[in-house]
Design goal:
2 domains; six-stranded antiparallel sheet; elongated; DUF4270 domain-containing protein; single chain; mainly beta; DUF4270; twelve-stranded antiparallel sheet
């Protein structure tokens, strides 16, 4: 075992073993009254016995990639759509669903007014997964089924679905510069526009109020069009996602006007994710298969919350360390996770926050340990890593019974982690370079 020892005996150094008097004297004084094994007391220590302060980084870990059936994607304020191919995760196709609300009551004269156009206005957030220099393609469909939560549920998920018409109401193809373009405009069906114009002008009961309008027009579905190769994000709040009806009034001088059908019920807007993992290391992670050990995926594990993929870590032999001597006490444990070399080109492609959670045997999260300290090597990407203090977790697991045994889960936290395709690929302990590491500092009385 690769370990460094600190003893309360004399001070000397031999090879990889270091003995220090002062440090251990203090540690022993603090711990001897409260951390003894049954039947053990420091009064029994004799001169030829030794207490060591040890660091080991060879404790075995087991790692696996798990697939959740679904993850919540509603109410995030972000509309995602597009296609992204990833050699490690497969191809993700993302659609988005949302409702529209009736416009404010508007007085449009029956004579001397006319319909001009109907457009869907969308505002990019600045995020793109893919190449922004190639044309983007979007299609807009009319939803034919009420968008709503299922009974007893309060979210819509990445696998939720609602029926829509087969012919698009609008299409868009062009360059979108996500960081500079303030908005994009998608031309919608003139037939629908003329119909809505007449209904607004005539104050149709199918338009006002919004509850009636939703029966007539349940919502819209945005999908990537042919040739799409990127995923983009747009704002999904009522003031930034709007279907705008342009019309004119023939007065002394013709006047251009419009009414807005703004997004309704932001909590019901959600992003649907369709994953095709054919040809990727995760190809077998589908259907009834919910877990793949790292040995089955090239000695790597995978984390991408939007597609429901996470990494589980277990420390199966942690309890065995108590058998090393009469007295054993964990002082500190640090888990370090490195993004695998060659799996990302810059830090914007990996999660900025990576939660470490406790999970039971069904992979249900029972607690969050922390969000890690991310150290970024922007120059070489050689020393980028996440680190976690898991001391309390390890001490709890030493005395846990079977029902209380917990594993560790790496995932992106909350809604923010489900608004991008950022992902982490981590090496297990079988890979020589950038492998996951756990460092255990402990006291041992032999």
């Amino acid at each position: 075992m690769n370990a460094t020892f600190f003893s309360h005996k004399g001070a000397k150094c031999s090879g990889g073993i270091i003995y220090v008097t002062t440090v251990m004297a203090l540690l022993v004084t603090v711990l001897c009254s409260s951390c003894q094994k049954t039947g053990f007391a420091y009064d029994n220590v004799v001169d030829n016995q030794q207490t060591d302060y040890i660091l080991t980084d060879t404790l075995s870990l087991t790692m696996k990639t798990i697939q959740y059936d679904s993850v919540p994607t509603s109410g995030s304020g972000i509309l995602l759509t597009g296609v992204k191919a990833d050699s490690h995760f497969g191809t993700s196709t993302i659609n988005s669903f949302f409702q529209l609300q009736a416009p404010s009551s508007t007085d449009i004269p029956v004579n001397g007014s006319g319909f001009d156009s109907l457009r869907l206005l969308m505002r990019p957030t600045g995020y793109i997964a893919g190449d922004s220099t190639i044309p983007q393609s979007l299609q807009v469909y009319r939803v034919t089924q009420s968008i709503q939560f299922a009974k007893t549920f309060f979210y819509l998920y990445n696998n939720s679905d609602f029926t829509a018409e087969s012919t698009p109401l609008g299409t868009f193809t062009g360059i979108i510069r996500p960081k500079t373009d303030k908005s994009i405009s998608i031309k919608m069906s003139d037939a629908l526009g003329a119909q809505l114009f007449a209904m607004v002008r005539d104050k149709s009961p199918d338009i006002f109020p919004t509850s009636s309008f939703l029966n007539f027009f349940p919502g819209l579905k945005i999908t990537p069009g042919p040739g799409s190769a990127s995923v983009m994000a747009f704002q999904a709040i009522d003031t930034s996602l709007t279907m705008r009806l342009y019309y004119h009034i023939n007065e002394l001088i013709p006047t251009a006007r419009y009414v807005d059908f703004k997004m309704n019920a932001s909590e019901l807007q959600f992003n649907q994710v369709l994953s095709n993992r054919t040809g990727s290391p995760l190809e077998k992670l589908q259907g009834p298969v919910k877990e793949l050990p790292s040995a089955a995926t090239g000695n790597m594990t995978f984390t991408q919350s939007l597609t429901g993929v996470a990494t589980r870590i277990d420390i199966p032999f942690l309890k065995n360390m108590q058998q090393l001597g009469q007295f054993f006490k964990i002082m500190k444990v640090v888990l370090t996770v490195y993004p695998a070399t060659g799996t990302y080109t810059n830090s914007s492609q990996i999660p900025s926050n990576l939660a470490l959670c406790q999970v039971d045997k069904t992979n249900t999260v029972t607690d969050t340990i922390g969000y890690g300290n991310l150290s970024i090597d922007n120059q070489y990407n050689e020393n980028t890593y996440y680190s976690y203090d898991i001391t309390n977790y390890c001490n709890t697991q030493l005395s846990a019974d079977l029902a209380g045994t917990r594993g560790l889960l790496l995932t992106t936290p909350g809604g923010a982690g489900r608004n991008t395709l950022n992902r982490l690929i981590a090496n297990d302990q079988q890979i020589a370079k950038k492998k996951i590491k756990v460092q255990v500092y402990y006291l041992l009385y032999k």
